[in-house]
Write a structure and sequence with these properties.
Strand order of the largest sheet: 10-15-16-13-14
Number of helices: 3
Structural class: mainly beta
């Protein structure tokens, strides 16, 4: 009897050693619908041993019976699963949808919320740009962005407006306009060269910190323009056509003098080379 009891004790001890040894555990991380969850992180609780699931949600880890596997990842809730006597395991991770606030990526700091941003960034959508038909894209900024000054010194039809975001508003300084970016490329012209109907949105950066991304040329601010993109011509496509005509006229014309004291005499050409002969003036003999 003692020999039998000793053999049973040895067998139980050997069984415990077998179960306590690490072995390869393969598993799959799935969600509530049974679809695999790619990129999930799997770690053994209480240790630093961990792996990541592949694109099919499958993983392989060295663990032993009784270990607790912790699963975490983007878009899923943290979950736990206990390793049993088998070599395969399926871990259920519930989907977790997180609603985030608006995030702005700048040269100052990546993915910064608007509340923590050190510069002023104003976004103007296409609806606001075309709410009132603008004569130019620059005129669409007037009254829509605080602190933006637009002015025209020539008054010619179709002339580009001078835009100042943070430069001197008292003097017409040359080169005080903002840097204009169109779809990620620096525009060498002006906003007058862009059709307002082709613009999806505009972002106005009024802080000098924008130079951290675009260099010293952005010291007077940045206007980033994003143009519209084609969205397919299948069922549900929308085509918008807008026709507009406008006129520019002088509000009042000032009459100018029709004569002056320096009207040339009819025979002024006869004295060309000697002096200029004006009408109404009596010149002495031999002048």
């Amino acid at each position: 009897m003692r020999k039998i009891a000793s053999l049973l004790t040895i067998l139980m001890f050997m069984t415990t050693l077998v179960f306590a040894q690490d072995r390869t555990i393969t598993g799959t991380v799935i969600d509530e619908t049974g679809a695999s969850v790619p990129g999930a992180s799997i770690r053994i609780k209480g240790t630093r041993t961990g792996v990541a699931a592949d694109n099919n949600g499958q993983f392989s880890i060295q663990a032993k019976t009784g270990d607790i596997l912790l699963v975490s990842g983007a878009g899923i809730e943290a979950a736990e699963a206990k390793v049993g006597t088998g070599n395969t395991i399926a871990i259920l991770a519930k989907t977790n949808f997180v609603t985030g606030s608006e995030v702005i990526v700048t040269g100052v700091a990546g993915a910064t919320t608007r509340e923590k941003l050190t510069v002023s960034v104003t976004k103007i959508s296409a609806e606001r740009i075309n709410a009132v038909p603008p004569t130019s894209l620059a005129s669409a900024l007037t009254g829509k962005v605080a602190g933006v000054k637009t002015s025209s010194f020539g008054g010619l039809p179709g002339q580009a407006l001078d835009i100042q975001l943070r430069a001197d508003n008292n003097l017409n300084n040359v080169g005080s306009g903002p840097l204009i970016i169109v779809d990620g490329a620096i525009l060498s012209g002006s906003l007058a060269d862009i059709n307002a109907d082709d613009v999806e949105s505009m972002e106005v950066v009024k802080g000098a910190a924008a130079s951290a991304l675009y260099g010293s040329r952005a010291g007077n601010g940045v206007i980033s323009v994003t143009t519209k993109r084609g969205k397919g011509f299948g069922i549900g496509s929308t085509i918008t056509v807008r026709n507009e005509i406008g006129f520019q006229n002088l509000a009042k014309e000032l009459e100018t003098a029709k004569h002056h004291y320096y009207t040339l005499a009819p025979d002024w050409e006869s004295q060309r080379g000697n002096f200029t002969k004006y009408a109404g003036i009596v010149y002495p003999t031999g002048y």
